[in-house]
Design a protein that fits this description.
- 41% of the residues lie in helices and 18% in strands.
- With 346 residues, the protein is an alpha/beta fold.
- Helix 2 runs parallel beside helix 4, helix 4 packs across helix 5 and helix 5 packs across helix 7.
- It is globular, with a radius of gyration of 19 Å.
């Protein structure tokens, strides 16, 4: 971490999260101590990034145990409310389900279940930090990860609670002297790249260059970047990966010009129950996010809006998938099946 902590678990009290909607202009932490407040923070993108959503979901379940009592029915209701906020990111639902299992295993005492939920939330965060560090080490020697690279959306500590995924790999390669510059897309319509990735690159001391999303194809075609690496919110059993909308286009252009395209994500992002990208639910967001930013509007009223938050990159366009266990290469199906089975066994 580099001077900022996206989330803090406060057993018995709640969680604190860095409000990412205010960055880069203001660093404000929010104390969340109700399930409704956690759901609002997730839905409004005050906290975001698939792995960090998982940790936040675990914290939300611990809060539910304090607020609503740790009875099975109350916890199931809280789980449903939290899961509904962001359906595409698999980590959120997975961590909530693990929290339910931890509470059930703790026994009939409400106090024991409350303690188990807080313990699981702390474990989820510690585990994520360990995963991030391992993932970054595995990814730093990726072929093509040298000179200048391109990334999309935000994949640093703000997205995980630890070191990050794709941005952590970039940081490791930069510290190793392989990478000299990172290009970051603005990431329309909510500007996560402009607001968050550029902020994190500055915090890490990595030279960064911002570009409009619409300039990414020409940048790749120009030969100025040697690789493209992004995170993922869900990876299907065949290796198809859902990530911030616009990722598919980057992968397609990279393939056209012989530039390797990589995904970086923890094992918690792999979904063995989803056979391919066609079965990944895609979140569509509100009209107000398009045609302006915040209260500043530049589009006239009356037109329709198409605003998917994610798209799916087919596995055949992905040169490698980096996780905490190593780098997966195509064909992905057998490797993903083996890794997810090991993850369940643990």
């Amino acid at each position: 971490m580099s001077g900022y902590t996206p989330i803090c678990i406060l057993p018995g009290e709640g969680i604190e999260v860095l409000d990412q909607t205010l960055l880069p202009h203001e660093e404000r932490y929010l104390r969340l101590d109700t399930v409704a407040a956690v759901a609002e923070a997730i839905r409004s993108l005050r906290v975001r990034g698939a792995p960090l959503l998982g940790v936040t979901g675990a914290g939300g379940m611990a809060i539910a145990g304090e607020e609503q009592g740790a009875g099975p029915e109350a916890l199931v209701e809280a789980a449903a409310e939290l899961k509904a906020t962001r359906p595409t990111a698999v980590d959120l639902g997975a961590m909530i389900d693990e929290a339910l299992v931890a509470a059930e295993a703790a026994g009939p005492s409400e106090r024991e279940r409350q303690a188990a939920l807080w313990g699981f939330a702390e474990l989820a965060l510690a585990r994520q930090r360990e995963r991030d560090a391992a993932l970054a080490r595995h990814g730093r020697e990726l072929p093509g990860l040298e000179g200048a690279v391109l990334t999309h959306c935000n994949t640093g500590g703000l997205a995980t609670g630890g070191e990050g995924t794709a941005l952590a790999v970039i940081a490791e390669a930069w510290r190793a002297g392989r990478i000299e510059r990172c290009y970051a897309t603005e990431t329309r319509p909510l500007l996560q790249g402009a607001r968050l990735t550029m902020w994190e690159l500055g915090a890490l001391g990595i030279p960064g260059t911002l570009l409009p999303d619409t300039a990414a194809a020409s940048l790749i075609a120009s030969g100025q970047v040697s690789a493209v690496i992004t995170g993922a919110d869900r990876i299907a059993a065949n290796g198809d990966g859902a990530n911030k909308v616009g990722t598919y286009g980057l992968a397609a252009v990279a393939a056209r010009h012989g530039v390797p395209f990589y995904l970086a994500a923890p094992l918690s992002t792999f979904d063995a129950n989803t056979p391919s990208g066609e079965a990944i639910p895609i979140e569509f967001r509100g009209d107000g996010e398009v045609g302006g930013f915040g209260d500043d509007r530049w589009s006239p009223d009356g037109g329709g809006v198409y605003n998917p938050a994610f798209d799916v990159t087919p596995a055949e366009l992905i040169a490698g998938i980096v996780c905490e266990s190593g780098v997966l290469r195509p064909p992905y199906g057998p490797a993903i099946a083996a890794l997810t089975a090991q993850n369940v066994d643990r």
